[in-house]
Amino acid sequence: MSPEEKTLDYTAGEMMTVTAARALVNGMTCFVGIGLPSEAANLARLTHAPDVVLIYESGTLQTKPDVLPLSIGDGELCESALTTVSVPEMFRYWLQGGKVDVGFLGTAQIDRFANLNTTLIGDYQAPKVRLPGGGGAPEIATNAGEVFITLKHSPRAFVRDVDFITTLGFGRDGKGRDGVPSIGQGPTRVISDLCVMKPDSATKELTVVSLHPGVTRADVVEATGWAIRFADELEITPAPRGEELEILRGLKARTERAHAGQ
Amino acid sequence: MSPEEKTLDYTAGEMMTVTAARALVNGMTCFVGIGLPSEAANLARLTHAPDVVLIYESGTLQTKPDVLPLSIGDGELCESALTTVSVPEMFRYWLQGGKVDVGFLGTAQIDRFANLNTTLIGDYQAPKVRLPGGGGAPEIATNAGEVFITLKHSPRAFVRDVDFITTLGFGRDGKGRDGVPSIGQGPTRVISDLCVMKPDSATKELTVVSLHPGVTRADVVEATGWAIRFADELEITPAPRGEELEILRGLKARTERAHAGQ
Amino acid sequence: MAEILSLHDAVARYVEDGATVAMEGFTHLIPFAAGQEIIRQGRRELTLIRMTPDLIYDQLIGAGCAKKVIFSWGGNPGVGSLHRLRDAVEKGWPRKIEILEHSHAAMACAFEAGAAGLPLAVLRGYVGSELPNVNDQIKFIDCPFTGERLAAVPSVRPDVSIVHAQKADRAGNVLVEGIVGVQKEAVLAARHSIVTVEEIVDDLDTHPNACVIPGWAIDAIAVAEKGALPSYAHGYYARDNRFYREWDAIARDRDAFTKWIDENVMNVGGNA
Amino acid sequence: MAEILSLHDAVARYVEDGATVAMEGFTHLIPFAAGQEIIRQGRRELTLIRMTPDLIYDQLIGAGCAKKVIFSWGGNPGVGSLHRLRDAVEKGWPRKIEILEHSHAAMACAFEAGAAGLPLAVLRGYVGSELPNVNDQIKFIDCPFTGERLAAVPSVRPDVSIVHAQKADRAGNVLVEGIVGVQKEAVLAARHSIVTVEEIVDDLDTHPNACVIPGWAIDAIAVAEKGALPSYAHGYYARDNRFYREWDAIARDRDAFTKWIDENVMNVGGNA
User: What CATH number has the domain bearing residue B52?
Assistant: First the structure.
């Protein structure tokens, strides 16, 4: 890290988005979830990965929005896409057909085996909190080559066992993908505002591999609902570079203006 | 029949085409087979049924060709269509989805229960004559509301039992549609150059209901490979009208010129 | 054959109490005007099908029209919850509703299968998800060729589907352009269909492979200008993202919601 | 990511002896130039998949490239028989070939299922047909919801698919327009794909819902001007219906056929 970068001010949210963006490799085909994943994926496209192919479940193939969509089907996505297909075609030919390298998802809850819950908190018949539901995630998580997940750290979000598995990570016992034909690798990294986690290669339990600058192990432990493990060779996530922050802030400012517009 | 129509000259083939065309009701949705059905369906559209909707398996919906297509996918069909969809969509949404009132088919062989053979003459493993195969017919015949069939009469074409049921009429025993869910009525009329046949309401055996002008029962019996029955109230098919012949001949002349063109 | 009707008459004729209704439009072209006409006409006991209930079903649910909702993602996109949906599910206001939930992939395939006239859709889906535990309409079949276990869901075959589109010609042929979602599938899968359009034109003026739904596959066309607002119509007007945000506060409170419905739905003439 | 290659190199790289090859184009955009390149390169033992073998497979079969043909309608459209297909099936010249035949509906669904990554396609098909007696790849399943018996066929998943299209841009994105057949499905279903095009342009200049296949879903693009003749390319040239008629006499006679292939395929440079 060079001295002038060290002195940059950035928020934990920006740290998370920049780190998530960096996970995408130029040329990858990425099925993008709305919200944080969309922000990260478009930042990647506007920085190191100009040829990343972004696909949204609304049917927009290879889209290059100038502002972030509020919904998964904003007009901007279609207008800047290579082409737009029907939603059945999107899920059948492009996702299930194996054309997606990485699915990029957010979630409400995640557990130690990277299972995602976006269905509800509490009991299904008498929910404490009703969440939006599965959307595209259940099949993105199994039909994409691999899955990146990004969400903010908190003990309510990072729980030992999700109340409901909406979307498979590695199952209740870490073996949920074993022997399943034509299934993707599943979650290969989880990026929060505190750290980066990867599944342990043997147990599939999420393990911290990198702490964001200034974050301590205790911070992560406190914000995680299970006794989270740390990799032997724990790294420090590189801080955002000035250019990344500038482009991210520009993107968010344009988005803010556009959405307030009408 | 008025005197001046009586004196019109027309061929048996023209008689057949005009009669087949008349079977189509204005506004019907018709899935059109190539060859004789296409000629008849377009004649219908150019005469009494301007709003008949013609669909070809090439994906062309509601097409209005100025000349007859040689193949099922001539450019003319697409250029004059309301829209053109993929072939999977054509068979799934439009045919199987129940949007077709009548399927209009030709065939190489037909038997007394209106089963069609376009696969082969002789034994499957050692065919005497190899025919083109099923094409769209097997599912047109079962998924369209009803089926019209048109072909020239001869003992080789009208056989007691087809060598191979490519396409269901009423099966080997006339009961092939009984109790099958979501199946169309099947063949409701067969138009040849000699007569019009309909399935007997009880046995489903093809029965002559109308003889073309100048055709005798003996002519039909001789040209049919089984002891064909005649309806109690046997009618005489109305002869082609001058306008019909004129339009048919114009259509064929335009077609001839167009196909010789290149 | 499509008949050109007023929105009032189209809804009155085809949407009956107790009907199964799909009102589609994936973020784009959501038939809000038609939804509000259903509220105005006081339809009850509807089974509402939609991948994303969105504000349109939040309004219908809050107004008491629904007894059941079949969906796959029930949020206010980019904003948060659908408070009327949640209030009905969690607290039973204004009535308890039943929900049946799927994934997007399954619902998209179910619409496709409905359009294709099939009783079921088959997909590589729900692997490891607990949704099959709470939705008895998710089953599994074995591929007779490979032995692979695949998910199966019943196809969507509504009594009536309603979609919004850019334009129709005078014969009732409809052009849908942009994000086409499952709109065509919804129309083709239904026993009856209503399409609201921005305008009726002499000529659709389009290209050979456009998404055109022929008039003979539609029951009724109704003009509903701006009929998709606060969602949008590609080529006509943009999404009112601000209203989507404002809805959060309106829908969060039962009284605010009721007042909004009274002022913006009940006491206006509609597009009749 | 699509690489722009000469037709010679594209075929040499992706079409191997013994491969399963789908060359699609429903009457329109049939990739004749590519088919003839395969003949020139002397590929053997191919399993050829195509709904309508048409003249393109008649040529490949007569030239001895095929060991098996999977098809659903094997005629010369509007003209009569495919004499080289018949000669191979009936008399074993130049070699005995195996055939596996379907209906159009089943093959179209099988391509769709292949593109969708599924092992099987399900359709309401083959009811009362005797094709299932002679094709052991046609099976039946029971719908778990309704009990209805439905046909199932294996999806089409070729080693390589080859289609022809109007144009590609420099990134290899391809526009297919007009009768689109199962071309997109063929490309998406295959392990590798080659698309021949009339021209490479800066900008596809098309509409929001055009049938565009992204370059990253294609292996090779090769320019083959008039590469679909005697079939046609919407917007470029018309079908050579006269040649389709003339083919009948050429293909009817083994010597005439061999002479035609020698003069028109073997002893020309191709589009390399």
Answer: 3.40.1080.10
